[in-house]
Amino acid sequence: MDNTTHTTRSTGILELCRSNWKTTSTLLATLLACAVLLPLLGHKPLTNWDEGIYAEISREMLSTGALVPHWNYQPWFEKPPLMLWITAAFFKLFGVHEFWARAGSAFSGVTIVALLHAWFARRNDTLAAWLSTFILLTTFGFLHVCRVGEMDVLLSLGCCIALYGLTSIESLAPSGWYLFWSGLAIAIMTKGAASATLVITAIIVAALERGNLTRLTRHFWLGLSFFLLLVLPWHLYMFHSFGKGFLSEYLGLHVLTRATHQIEDHITHWWYYLWVLLISAAPFVLLYPWAIIEGFRRKELRAWAVFAVVVLCFFTLIQTRLPHYIAPAYPALALVTAVFLADQLRALQRKRQQSPNSFWSTTAVLAAVICIATAFLTAGPRRRLHQARVGPDIVSAEKESIQLLREVFTQPPPISGPLLTWWEGGERSIATSVFYAKRPVQQIQLQPPSASAPSDKYLFRPETLDDALASGPRIILLDKYLVPQIPSQFSYRPIASGRSMEIGTINQK
Questions:
Q1: Which of 78, 189, 201, 477 has the fewest CB atoms within 10 Å around its CB?
Q2: Mean pLDDT score across all residues of the chain
Q3: CA 78 from chain center: how many Å?
Q4: On the CB side of 100, how many CA atoms lie within 13 Å of its CA?
């Protein structure tokens, strides 16, 4: 009786899955994406610069409020706040941890995989659906951005939603305007000017369609109104509160300067992103040109193909180039490549007249061998592509600093006030120090900096040790070789020590 009941239940589940195969297939792809993107997400400390900065801003939102971003307890205007709000919500619900600092990127990546898979499933193309999932989850450029606490994957998700809307509009479904404007709002509130690629894409698609997209129905205007409701309030509030100071940092340094100059030692050639694709998207990068051409020919793929080309061209023209800037292109490239590859495989199967089981088993084995081989061949260049642009001594010192800060600041130390940092002999960011110290960080040196010395809030904006200790004792993180150089009028007591770094308390005698 029990065996009969168990068999009946199993048969019922299988029948349910068959009758809802689109949902089942999408759910399986989503679970696969979770299995690939989520494990060990928090096992490494945050890296200096973007990860450390964004995580700290989200942590400070818990105490300073979410409307005005703060870093090192000072207003911060470099990026819009959507991703920061999401991370702050994770911190509020689950605690401040490296996993939740990166979870926004990872869950955005999972959503992109599910969105593309569902798009194909709705069109009854199971092969293309699973190819899109396989291509995305074996594209190392996509995997990398999904597992770091930055903003590019949420930006990519907004772009995918907007492109989904454009495709619907091209298919004469005017409700697609709601998706387009919502996706554009997500993109703008995530990374500001980078969303210009969507606007350029919409204009090009409209031109290719000879004005079909310009039939501005009420759905267009309602979608635009919703877009303005999402985007304008925060920007208007920030401009009202901070005026030109907000605009100069929000649009000046991080848009105009990056667009016209190669800053922060990111010196690259115009063909830089071709190299990034060759080592970050192998082996499927070899299919991209033919897939894009096919995408331009097919109406339902045109917006995705146009967008992929626009992203690559747009960020090639931008003078400051970084690997993750082209992350929004990966889903679009995966989608058009999945369609192209599915068509080629089906044609090959018909030509060979081979049994389906034999053909697809051979194809799966061959694909696995090729992907594994290219992963090994590109491992070295990929590692160099994403490695820190500082010397190994600085990288080692930064890792040691994080370990010491974790040890000392697990429980709130008895001494309050900013953490002082003192190091020399190279540029070293304080981004992760602020996060792991859970308090403001102030760089110090013995002599006042010269008037001509460059100032950077992440690298070098020091005050003298006398000024830093004027209001009482402090905790200091410093290079060990600097301890003997502490002037005699100060009292220093070590708390924790590593190979090259040390933390202690310091005060005036």
A1: 78
A2: 90
A3: 15
A4: 17
